[in-house]
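Chapter summary example.
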Amino acid sequence: MFVSSVKNLGFRIDNRLLFNDQIVSLKKKCFHTLRNLRKIRKLLPVNLLKLVVNSMVLSCLDYCNALYFGSGEKQINQLQLIQNAASKVITGKFKYDRIGDDLSNLHWLDIKKRIIFKIALLSYKAIVGIAPFYIQDMFKLEKPVGPAR
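The structure predicted for these 149 residues follows.
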């Protein structure tokens, strides 16, 4: 029997590696959380609201985000919508307001840059030797044989 998607460690993988099921599930979860946070936004100071959004929404976006590397623009844009909505909750903007420099003011990278940063950080840790051994084994540094010119 053939299944169209599987769930492993909380991440949904479909048969064509488009991650559509994962992104739909993630959008439902994050927008539900953001809707509830918007209701209590005025009760919390901005620094605490940013902390809550980071821990409840952005952590979901960052979970296994290296798997999104090479995904299509449509999938990446869907994830960017979640991050934009999170920044609007913190800054108090409404649905159709432009975010402008809000991401940089919050010291957030956009989704594409977050994915690349995650991969670069894992690579750096593997090369330096502080990553898990199964990741370090994927990186073999070759020492040059002759002198450099």
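To summarize the output: The chain is about 55% helix and 5% strand.
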